[in-house]
Design a protein that fits this description.
Blueprint lengths: L2 H25 L6 H13 L25 E3 L5 E3 L2 H9 L13 H6 L3 H4 L2 H13 L2
Antiparallel strand pairs: 1-2
Bound molecules: heme C (HEC).
Length: 136
Amino acid sequence: MSRVLLVLLVVVSLGAFAACRQEEQKAAPPNVNAELAQRGKELFGKYACNTCHSTTGQAGIGPALNGIYGKQVKLDDGSTVTRDDAYLRESILNPDAKIVAGYPKGSMANFIQPYLPELQKEENLSALVEYIKSLQ
Ligand code: HEC
C-alpha cells in the first residue's frame, strides 16, 4: 500500500472515530424538564444536599452527582447497578438501601432524617431527581 493511501486511511478512520464520539456525547443528556430541574436545584440547597455532594465532579462526603444519570455504579456489596430514576429515588428516600462502594453508610440517612416528610412528597422528590439528571 502506498504511503499516501495509508495516511488517507488513517485520516478517514480518525474522522469517523471523532464523529462517533460526538454522537455519543449528543446522546448522553437525558430529556430534562428545565423548570422542574430548576426547582430541584433550589431544594438541593434548601435540604443541604450540597454540603456533601458536589455537582462539579469533586468527591465530598458523598459522591459528586454530575454525569451519573444512566451510568453504572459499584456498590459496597460488590454488585453493580444502573443509576436510573428508581435508583435515584431510592438513594434519596432510603440512602442505606444501596451503598456506593467506598462511601460510608448512615451519614446521609442520619442527616436527611428531619427532611424525610418533605422529600417523600412527589413534587419534591421528582424535582430533585430531575435536577440530578440535568447535571452533566
Ligand atoms: C451528610 C452527607 C450527605 C447529605 C447531606 C446528603 N447525602 Fe446523598 N450521599 C451521601 C453519601 C455518603 C452517599 C454514598 C453512600 C450511599 O450510597 O448511600 C450518598 C449517596 C447519594 C446518592 C447516590 C449517588 C451515586 O453515586 O449513586 C444520591 C443520588 C444522593 N446521595 C442524593 C442526595 C440528595 C438529593 C440529598 C439531599 C436531599 C443528599 N444526597 C444529602 C451523603 C450525603
